[in-house]
Description:
The chain is α+β, with helices and mostly antiparallel strands. The protein has five helices and five strands; from the N terminus they run ααββαββααβ. The strands form two sheets. Strands 1-4-3 form a three-stranded antiparallel beta sheet.
Amino acid sequence: xxxxxxxxxxxxxxxxxxxxxxxxxxxxxxxxxxxxxxxxxxxxxxxxxxxxxxxxxxxxxxxxxxxxxxxxxxxxxxxxxxxxxxxxxxxxxxxxxxxxxxxxxxxxxxxxxxxxxxxxxxxxxxxxxx
Length: 130
């Protein structure tokens, strides 16, 4: 017997359930902030395999789960791929300017840490994929 597609649905908090402290916690980790920066730059959904992160696959999964449960990203299965999208509209509606401010601060920090402008930023080295 095959598993129904509905079991592949992931839980996401509704817009009105998003909490500032949970969003800030999710954004406080360098790896998660890097994921958010890459999603913001891409302005489209990206598969988990797109990201090259300096952590194990299980740790990568954990970081995506934290971002999803905080309401920072949305994850949906399309076939066998799990696509990730930034919930910018929800975040901007509830916390105006927060995401843009965090992204600008992360960009400034990355420029200070790596004046040569190497990709990845935030002092992270790309070594493993998730």
